[in-house]
Amino acid sequence: VSQSRYEQDKIQQQIIMYYRNYYQRLYVNCLIFSIPNGGLRDKRTAMLMKSTGLLPGASDLIVIHFGAVVFVELKTTTGVQSTEQKAFEVRVNQCGYPYYLCRSLEEFKQILSLH
Fold first, then answer.
1. Is 62 a residue whose pLDDT tops 70?
2. How many CA atoms lie within 13 A of 28 on its CB side?
3. What are phi and psi of 71, to 5 degrees?
4. pTM of the model
5. How far is CA 6 from CA 73, 82, 109, in A?
6. What CA–CA distance (Å, rounded) separates 49 from 66?
C-alpha cells in the first residue's frame, strides 16, 4: 500500500468515525457509506464487479445528510482526480447532486455545514 493510499484511508476512517458518532447514531435521516471502487483484483473478480454495477470513478463516499444526498471524493493534500473521477463528478452535477473533493476531516465538516 502506497503512502498516499494509507494517508487517504486515514482521512476516510476519520470521516466515517466522526459522522457515525455525531450524526448517524443520533439521527435517522443521516447515513454515510463507502463505495469500494479501488484496489487490485484478479480479472474474473473485476469482470464480475463490473457486471454487477461497479462504476469507475464513483466517489469514495455517499452521505445522506438531513435529506441531502452528497457525493464526496477523498484525496490527500497532493492527490488529483483521475479522468474517470472527473467524468463522474460531471455526471453527478448533471443529475442535480452536489459533489465535493475533500482532503481532511475539517473540510468534510465544512461540506456538512452547507447542507
1. yes
2. 0
3. -100, 130
4. 0.89
5. 15, 18, 21
6. 31
